[in-house]
Design goal:
With 255 residues, the chain is of the alpha/beta class. The chain has 9 helices and 9 strands. α2 crosses α3.
Length: 255
């Protein structure tokens, strides 16, 4: 997909290591709040700094969404959180900041990558209202047990044996909102054959196969040549060039 770049002014609220940043340049000053809709982007785990955020992770997705939403009655927000904290703490910190700043969101769609999808679901379980949730490579049933993660609360909270993840998967608010969830997962093929995972998250987990009521599930398949792929398949979950099904959905939803 073509990247869309333009200069825009941003409104950023920074509290400690977190930020809520409006990144669109749509002029909505003459619109009533009831007519304006919102899109929130949530990044995944930051492997280079366990106790820091990584909002830059979503930059390429940001630019593609901004292109789709230009001139429409949408505000687009990039929200960061500490990925070293458990996902439920990250969710609560976001909700606390939203309340402290007196922000409100209308007909909100969240687009979330990896751990961000679980943070989004936790926000919903705590009462945050959404119209749609789109998750990409999110470990709804935990990351692959063989994948090594540092023993900090963030990674531990998204392991298959995580009690806090188990509680989220049985949360009544989450269950009642699953008809709004669109889950995308990645598989890949290399010289060794086919792999039902993205090297970090199994397809079954990314598609939330064990969770009833999900509105839509879709697989994105990548093909590699020779050589080691490392964690590249999971990383492609934030690269618009490989996310055509996601942006086709966004085009349909963002009317």
């Amino acid at each position: 997909m073509e990247n869309y770049n333009y200069i825009n002014e941003t409104t950023e609220i920074v509290i400690e290591d977190f930020s809520i940043e409006r990144i669109d340049s749509n002029d909505l000053s003459t619109e009533s709040n009831t007519k304006v809709k919102d899109v929130i982007l949530l990044h995944g785990f930051n492997p280079t700094g366990f106790f820091s955020s990584n909002k830059e992770m979503m930059n390429e997705i940001n630019q593609t969404l901004l292109r789709q939403l230009r001139g429409k009655k949408y505000r687009t927000w990039n929200i960061s959180y500490k990925t070293g904290d458990s996902f439920d703490m990250g969710a609560q910190s976001i909700l606390n900041r939203i309340a402290k700043q007196g922000l409100s969101f209308n007909d909100c769609t969240i687009v979330a990558y990896s751990m961000g999808g679980i943070v989004a679901r936790s926000m919903i379980s705590k009462g945050f209202h959404v119209k749609n949730l789109i998750t990409i490579c999110s470990p709804h049933e935990g990351i692959a047990p063989s994948f090594f993660f540092a023993p900090s609360p963030g990674p531990q909270s998204i392991m298959p044996y995580s009690e806090v993840l188990h509680q989220l998967n049985h949360n009544e608010n989450d269950i009642n909102n699953r008809h709004k969830y669109y889950c995308f997962g990645i598989t890949y093929e290399d010289f060794r054959g086919h792999h039902d995972n993205d090297t970090v998250v199994y397809l079954e987990s990314a598609l939330a196969k064990k969770l009833n009521g999900i509105r839509h599930r879709e697989r994105i398949h990548l093909k590699y040549g020779t050589g080691a792929v490392g964690f590249d398949p999971h990383g492609r979950g934030k690269d618009p060039k490989f996310l055509n099904p996601v942006f086709r959905l966004c085009k349909r939803l963002f009317v």
